[in-house]
Amino acid sequence: MATKHRWNIGKELVSPFELAMMLLSFISVILILVMVLVPMDKETKRLLFLIDSGICVIFLLNFFVGLIRADHKIKYLQLHWIDFIASIPAIEPLRLARLFQILRVIRLIRMSRSLIGMLVKQRRQATLASLMVAMVTIMAFSSVLMLLVENGVPGANIKSAEDAIWWSLVTISTVGYGDFYPVTTVGHVIGGVVIVCGVSFFGVISGYMASIFVAPDEQEQLASQRKEMREEMDVVLKRMEHNQQQMMQEIAELKTALYQATPSEQQPPSSN
Question: Environment class of residue 141 by beta-carbon count within 10 Å: exposed (0-12), middle (13-18) or buried (19+)?
Fold first, then answer.
């Protein structure tokens, strides 16, 4: 039974979203360890809790989408039930169960022959997964750093967890409402880095959206290639059929010429 179970797991495909969930699981486990082991003020701890809750929402969405798309839902639940348990928000110790998902994905990566080849074949999913991980990571780290730097500084207006999250969202989207802004030098540096990341982030999104509308779909490319191959095969078959008919005609002409020449050669010589 164990051998069969290992074989089934080895046959799973490592999708880009599985890798994204692994990275988010790693971030979630780090957040929980920091909340438990590192002493911090109440507002920073609440900020980490909100970030962890947001990541849990992504986990739950991924779980239910996978459940809906699964052909064998019972088997999917048997393999991923621990992912659902580890995605329940407001219960931080359950997030440590994400270690099992991290180990499972690492095992699948080791069993797969070419991780880069898999990502290249699934470019769209890899792009979306990388953008999601990048956005969550940038927003999480920038909001935490900004709250640590700005909290308690005279004249600072980023004082709560909600303020830090709203500032990071507005800054990474390059909207810049100006209602919350850093007042320290370190805060300005963090803000500059987030702005550069935001510009690059949405530049990638723009390129991705353009590729969807401009570049042909993979299925359309396959259909076009199949059509070209059929047309080439038809041309080759017609040419072979034409050559065969020509050869048959030449053979028939040779037979006729031989048949006409044979009686004249077999006639006896005339006597004088």
Answer: middle
